[in-house]
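Hey Z.,

So I finally got round to the L-homoserine thing we talked about over coffee. Here's the setup:
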Amino acid sequence: MKTIKVGLVGFGTIGTGVAKLLLLQKERISKRTGCDVQLVRIADLDTTRDRGLKLPEGMLTADYHDILNDPEISIVVQLIGGTGVERTVMLEMINAGKNIVTANKALLATYGEEIFTAARAKGVSVAFEAAVGGGIPIIAAMGESLAANEIESIHAILNGTCNFILSNMEENGSDYAPTLKEAQRLGFAEANPAMDVEGSDTAQKLSILSHIAFGIHLDWKDIPKVGIETVSGIDFRYAKLLGYSIKLLAIANRVRGVAGSPDKLELSVCPTLVKKGSPIAAVSGAYNAVSVIGDAVETSFYYGKGAGEMPTASAVVADVMDTVVGRTKITFETLNLWNREKESGENVVLAKASEVKGRYYLRVVVEDRAGVISEVTAVLANAGISISSCVQDECDEASGVPLIIMTHETTEGAVLGAIEEMKQMACVKSEPVRMRIYG
Ligand code: HSE
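And the result:
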């Protein structure tokens, strides 16, 4: 039986899960790959912490060069998160001829072109199923199983931390700040939750999915995004009244070009009102879900754990096994991702943020006096935004009363312009909150 040696860089939560699978399920993996897949080295700066897994003597090292300089290691699982030293390590590994398996979505979303170009030049592959949706095999679905389709849209919950917080706010009628604290206490949110709650993690994942689905190469920072910090218990109360739940949704929507002009891709990450009773509204807790519409398959829906030790390790080790049997090489070469030459042939361009179409929910806290509703709605009328519903309950808060407005279809640009104008108005007491409406 052929032996394949694997090195692992990063022995944190996912790294531990990967080591468990590779070491404890060795027989299962050999049976399914026809190879003796050996985890031979793990590099992590912390070589003392007990991860609850007994490693063979000498396997753990603090120096990743022990993997880099071992010519027998042909597959490197890189599970260090970030875009600084991680980029250097990734490029060094590629240039040393290692095939890569990674979960680092920030690195791919930021340096995908550089990494994939280096890998192509070196004749090695990069697999990244775990970078989006944790244990959900969405990269394989997009890159392989849905290959016969032209993708029309993606609507997805891609961040378990945000979904956990929003679900708990909905369930307990609580506000954002105490719910975040509780999520941190329970280990569902990082001590520094910014990348998750501000929507950056979701935007990075959406940029990767969009690249595969629509052949468009974009900077994830160009995706208009709103985080979940602005969502309050009040929003859930009104959403419920109107028949909606609230999710941080990643949206990619193809708008057909007319008269030979290219299709436009509308992208956004925003707290979104989703109709109760829809599959995506039922996704609660730390779960992820992706709804994809293709021209042949129509709607398909993928659901599962988007983070965590073993669900993410499941995706990583599947990539290792695919690399061992040669499937990754084929996918890597045929998909040809982050390749400028290929992208120039695609007929899709990114819609400007101002052009992104949608329906919106606005919460505007206003002074409680005669004429205020007409002043606020006049701003929307002047921006050409049509109102589909407007709710204002009796309220004796001195700080102002929430005015809840649902719009008909408009553009992100029109809504942002109207919000800017409202911010200047004396009757508007705080920055208006906007969310999208889906379904
Ligand atoms: N922090 C992410 C989440 C998982 O909460 O879903 C890794 O991308």
